Amino acid sequence: MAIKIYLAGPLGFSEVGRMFHYECLIPALEQLGLEPLDPWQLGDTEELRSALALSDLNEQRTQLAEINRSIGRTNVEAIDRCDWILANLDGVDVDSGTAAEIGYGFATGKLIFGYRGDFRLSCDNLGGQVNLQVEYFIRASGGLIASDLESLLQALQSAGQ
């Protein structure tokens, strides 16, 4: 049975992020025999696309509020089903949704890996790589933070053996 890995991160918000996510990261994970649980695919529904296309902003707000709750619930269910979490930590600061998913995953006993290919500083002080609480949850889960895709894939492969 394949290890299920939840993909936390903001990559779906941008065109270049989606390209890396779908053309590089997911195929590499599948090649390792992992089963990605992708919140960007789980939450991409016709209902969401229809609500975003509404011209009446009050109606759009009402519909999106309900859709947002549904997406949040779906993501929690996916984290509950996964074995591991892979969190993309790129950006000037860790995405707030990603940080929440890391915290929830840690609280439920998941093994968490971080990927930060971004070379900019994003830490509380020189003792860390990212926000100290996020980094604590990742390392205390038994995971690590990789700074390049090759190192990340090696760590995932080693953990799966």
From TrEMBL:
<keyword id="KW-0378">Hydrolase</keyword>
<dbReference type="GO" id="GO:0070694">
    <property type="term" value="F:5-hydroxymethyl-dUMP N-hydrolase activity"/>
</dbReference>
<dbReference type="InterPro" id="IPR051239">
    <property type="entry name" value="2'-dNMP_N-hydrolase"/>
</dbReference>
<dbReference type="Pfam" id="PF05014">
    <property type="entry name" value="Nuc_deoxyrib_tr"/>
</dbReference>
<dbReference type="InterPro" id="IPR007710">
    <property type="entry name" value="Nucleoside_deoxyribTrfase"/>
</dbReference>
<keyword id="KW-0326">Glycosidase</keyword>
<protein>
    <submittedName>
        <fullName>2-deoxyribonucleoside glycosidase</fullName>
    </submittedName>
</protein>
<dbReference type="GO" id="GO:0009159">
    <property type="term" value="P:deoxyribonucleoside monophosphate catabolic process"/>
</dbReference>
